[in-house]
Amino acid sequence: MRQFVIEKVDEGQTIIKYLQRILPLAPTSFFYKMFRKKNIVLNDNKKLTGKEKVFENDIVRLYLSDDTIDGFSKAVKVDTEEFTKAFIKYKSPEIVYEDEHLLFINKPSGILSQKSTPSDLSANEWLIGYLLDKGEVNASKLSKFKPSVCNRLDRNTAGILIFAKSLFGANIINPLIKDRSLHKYYLTVVEGHFNKEVHDISYLKKDEKTNRVEISKTAKEGFSLIETYFYPVKYNKKLNVTLLSVLLVTGKSHQIRSCLYNLGFPIVGEAKYRDDESKVSKMFGLKSQVLFAYKLKFPKMENYDSLSEKELTISMPSIIDKLMEE
Q1: For residue 272, which phi and psi values (nearest 5 degrees)?
Q2: pLDDT tens-digit readout, 235-287
Q3: How many CB atoms lie within 10 A of CB 8?
Q4: Distance between CA atoms of 264 and 153, rounded to whole angstroms?
């Protein structure tokens, strides 16, 4: 018999998922067979279905031979070379907040959130490289759980990127993103006088071949509903540009950029969604859209006091100050 005590980082997953991590070479059918024979026990529960969730300090007992356990638990080798390469390339990230389970960074423009091709080095590889450099993970730990980015920002959109360092962290943050109780705010500067609040509900469809999206004001087949709030903050009459705060309710690809173009207010620096070349962009030598994920507002969280009803923000990027200087 061998027993495993559940650690905080593994809390919240089902018993079947936990077993698949500690015995990665065992077929799923093996676990269900062992449940029926009562050879795998969670605390005092001998009638497992596989759907039971595990929590910190729970005890999983395996009434199996050492040979069987060792044979199924040989770690799958993880190559850490690309993670180290990404960390060397991008260096230490600008940390907005970090604890044992979650990491929030200020992602620079020009870095993918996640790979789009196998050869890419994205923020995902970069931040695993950061954890490797700190000694928080190693190849063995990565074979059981691979930390990952939880929200996506377009390559040229800078700002707060969320990264789950542990399974527990992923189980905390992903439901908040899914149910939209984590409020995501952006700052952007658009061309024209945007002089009133707008609550935009539209429908979006992405063409993967052209990497562009189409916006419709009515529901159509293949289109997804999108919802966005736009709040004017300041208008610069000299440049005829407006600073907006944006609350992103849904989070579809290119949502803010395409919505503002559809409303007649292209983002300064934008090249994909506009009808002509931006004079303001040329004046300031801008190569990408002025769009920043600048604030996260967390709901009340009974199981995570450190972030419950808190706000995370980044400082106003210098380009916004320059564009709004009258």
Answers
A1: -80, -40
A2: 999 999 999 999 999 999 999 999 999 999 999 999 899 988 889 999 999 98
A3: 15
A4: 23
